[in-house]
Design brief:
Layout lengths: L17 H43 L8 H10 L9 E2 L5 E13 L1 H7 L2 H11 L5 H8 L6 E7 L1 H10 L4 E10 L7 H4 L1 E2 L5 E3 H5 L1 H6 L4 E2 L4 H17 L4 E8 L5 E7 L31 H10 L8 E3 L4 E3 L2 E3 L8 E3 H6 L3 H11 L1 H10 L24 H8 L8 H12 L3 E2 L16 E2 L3 H17 L13 E11 L2 E15 L6 E8 L13 H19 L32 E3 L2 E3 L3
Parallel strand pairs: 1-7
Antiparallel strand pairs: 1-2, 2-3, 2-4, 5-6, 8-9, 8-18, 10-13, 11-12, 14-15, 16-17, 17-18, 19-20
Helix pairs in contact: 4-5, 10-18, 11-13, 11-17, 13-15
């Protein structure tokens, strides 16, 4: 009998059912597909764990600064660091403006209205902050906004009290408040920031990027001590003569650094509300005025520098000059021939006008441009005015500009120009930023050194023997020049509405500081015999500043007598003229007795 192998075993007929064969095939296919998916999923998870593990190892490594990388990453991921606005300091490092951390209150009105009535929430808040406007608070609570400001820059006590109210939806946000420790004293120099900490005036605006964006501090050229002195003396002059305003500036003639700058009326930058109108107007840089006889300094300097006149020359000032409908006369008339020093000492309009005609309009414009008087001042403030001068510069303009009429400039421009007159003849751009010893001052020569020397002697003589006597400070050899100009009112000049000024410098043997004071619309008083001119109003204020400024900087008083200046060997000696030279000339259709 032949045996069948297992492979040859007969299969029952019913086992060959097609439906059964199909079911077994589908089950096998599903199992295979499931195994494949599990395998792929396992591989993916394995790869993910490998990547995460590698990243974890990388984060535990230390960065360049020695700290684990995860620390830097986590801090930046949570929130970008808040940049604290940089401080503004004076030249000696004293803080003039800084930022303090504070909190501001906001309301999520939807959350509040779920837990309390709007009027009840408003009343509770008003119990802590009665200075708020209830109607405004109520409107903001009902606004439906998720973050609506209710109050900014709160004190810690206010924050605690508001938290104690337990009002739902009230929250606080960390912010900064700009603080000006000295209030109005530096108002027009520093300017101020808005409620969001952005600079919108003064140095705060000029250096917004440096202070705000980068959080860097700046050191000003301002000296806190000098600023306080100037601010106080200006206030005294303004109040004493019932003026509408006053302005002043103190400059270092060798570096161009502004040590003090003040304008009255002023405002408190901590509150900002008072910065509108006249109080926010910077009279030192933004205001332009006809500065009167202070311009005779520039007129005399250009005449000497061009060789048009010498110290022993002069002009006949015995008669007023009449041109068309204009008459040029002297306020302190001597009615005689005056030497060049006497024209400045006695502030002769007639002599100055004739001197200017000899120099000529072309040279006059050239020199005024050299002194920075025909363009805006390049100082680090946004509030800078542009000078005003005639489009047609004929003989009449040449004469009137010689004594400061017909041209309007800022007080800072005058101070910078006078600095060049006496520092050896070098024009230095004024600055409010402290200059580094490593960065030498760059200036441009505008006068011969001998002309500058002559101007120092002449300015000293104006104070000693002329209209600037009220600026004299014993021991400090003060020099300077008075200025009085009528203001334009309704298209004409008002003789009772004056701009009175005095520009002084000391010590005149080796000048270091220029001090300029301008008083706007002063009223004559009994002490000034009813006068409101620069010699009576502004000169004493300059003297007051200098008297207090000298000891601050250790300027040693000169112990010599006044008679010493009459010695030809003295550095401030001014030669006495021997009288007029007999010559005559004809210029511009006007016959003058020129000497």
């Amino acid at each position: 009998m032949i045996k069948k192998s297992p492979l040859q075993t007969e299969i029952p007929f019913e086992a060959l059912d097609p439906k059964r064969i199909h079911m077994e095939s589908s089950r096998k296919q599903a199992l295979d597909q499931g195994r494949t998916r599990l395998l792929v999923t396992g591989v993916v998870f394995a790869m993910a764990f490998v990547v995460l593990g590698g990243r974890l190892v990388d984060l535990t490594r230390h960065g360049k600064d020695g700290a684990p990388k995860w620390q830097a990453m986590s801090s930046s991921a949570i929130a970008a660091p808040v940049v604290t606005r940089g401080d503004v300091r004076d030249r000696n490092g004293h803080i003039l403006a800084t930022s303090l951390p504070t909190k501001s209150l906001y309301v999520d009105s939807r959350e509040t209205l779920r837990g309390i009535r709007a009027d009840e929430a408003a009343d509770k808040l008003m119990s802590v902050m009665p200075e708020l406007d209830r109607a405004q608070v109520l409107a903001r609570i009902k606004s439906g906004g998720r973050q609506v400001w209710l109050a900014r820059n709160l004190t810690p006590d206010q924050v605690w009290s508001i938290n104690s109210l337990g009002i739902p939806g009230f929250g606080f946000r960390d912010e900064e408040q700009r603080v000006y420790p000295f209030g109005p004293t530096f108002a027009h120099v520093l300017g101020y920031t808005d409620v969001d900490g952005k600079g919108i005036a003064g140095m705060e605006r000029t250096f917004q990027s440096k202070l705000g964006t980068h959080g860097e501090s700046i050191d000003l050229s301002i000296d806190m001590r000098v600023q306080a002195v100037l601010h106080e003396e200006l206030g005294k002059a303004k109040d004493k003569f019932d003026a509408v305003g006053a302005a002043g500036v103190v400059m270092d003639v060798k570096t161009g650094e502004i040590l003090a700058m003040a304008s009255l009326p002023d405002f408190d930058p901590n509150t900002r509300q008072g910065s509108l109108g006249d109080a926010g107007f910077n009279r030192v840089t933004k205001g332009v005025y006809e500065m009167g006889s202070t311009f005779k300094l520039f007129n005399t300097a250009m005449a000497l520098d061009t060789g048009t006149v010498g110290m022993s020359d002069g002009y006949d000032a015995s008669e007023p000059i009449r041109v068309s409908r204009f008459t040029i006369s002297d306020y302190h008339a001597k009615n005689r021939w005056l030497s060049v020093p006497e024209i400045l000492v006695h502030s002769s309009n007639i002599g100055s006008a004739k001197m200017a005609l000899d120099v000529g309009a072309k040279k006059q414009k050239e020199y005024l441009r050299r002194f920075g008087l025909l363009g805006s001042t390049d100082v680090e403030l946004p509030e800078v005015g542009n000078p005003l001068y005639p489009a047609r510069w004929g003989d009449i303009s040449t004469m009137t500009i010689s004594y400061g009429h017909g041209i309007a400039v800022s007080p800072l421009q005058v101070a910078a120009g006078v600095s060049a007159l006496i520092n050896g003849g070098v024009m230095i751009t004024p600055t409010l930023v402290k200059r580094s010893d490593d960065n030498p001052v760059q200036g441009k020569r505008v006068l011969k050194a001998k002309t500058s020397d002559a101007m120092r002697r002449l300015m000293r003589k104006v104070v000693r023997d002329g209209t600037g006597g009220n600026a004299e400070v014993k021991g400090y050899l003060v020099g300077g020049k008075t200025g009085t100009a009528e203001k334009q009112v309704s298209g004409g000049y008002d003789k009772k509405t004056l701009i009175s000024s005095f520009v002084g410098a000391f010590p005149m043997t080796n000048p270091r500081f220029v001090v300029l004071v301008v008083v706007d619309e002063p009223k004559g008083i009994k002490e000034s015999y009813g006068y409101a001119t620069g010699g009576w109003v502004a000169a004493p204020a300059v003297g007051g500043v200098i008297e207090r400024l000298g000891p601050i900087f250790g300027v040693v008083p000169d112990q010599g007598s006044d008679d010493a200046e009459e010695n030809p060997e003295h550095p401030l000696y001014v030669p006495v003229s021997n009288g007029p030279k007999q010559t005559a000339w004809l210029r511009g259709g006007l016959t003058h007795a020129a000497y």
